[in-house]
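Input chain follows. Return structure tokens only.
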Amino acid sequence: ATTEKRRLREEMSDLEDALRKVRDQLAETELENANFQTIVDAVKDIQTNQKSAEMNALRTVNLDLKDQISKLEHELDFSGGPTDTHNIKYGLEEKYKSAKTDFNNFINEAELGKKQVEDELAELRKKVSMR
């Protein structure tokens, strides 16, 4: 009977150790999942912010162009010479090119940031899958 009790205690101790190890692994996995979810949420926020920033940039460029066109129409009422019209058109084209370049630079920076986050996310996925 004593031998049987000792054997059962050892078996119970082994099962408790195994259970403790499984619980530790589960806690670690839950923490990794929480970290992974945080990163996924951050990526979604970045994408949302990028879209919002792009829309704001487009609105700003659009409003600026409308304002410049309005000013041109007003100036054309006071001048009628072809030279003035040509100079105004050239100025507008240059401003448009500048605004377009600035916008494209903004988009490129946003894409680089997005790629960096995606690379970090892929690296994290790789680390999680290794465990």
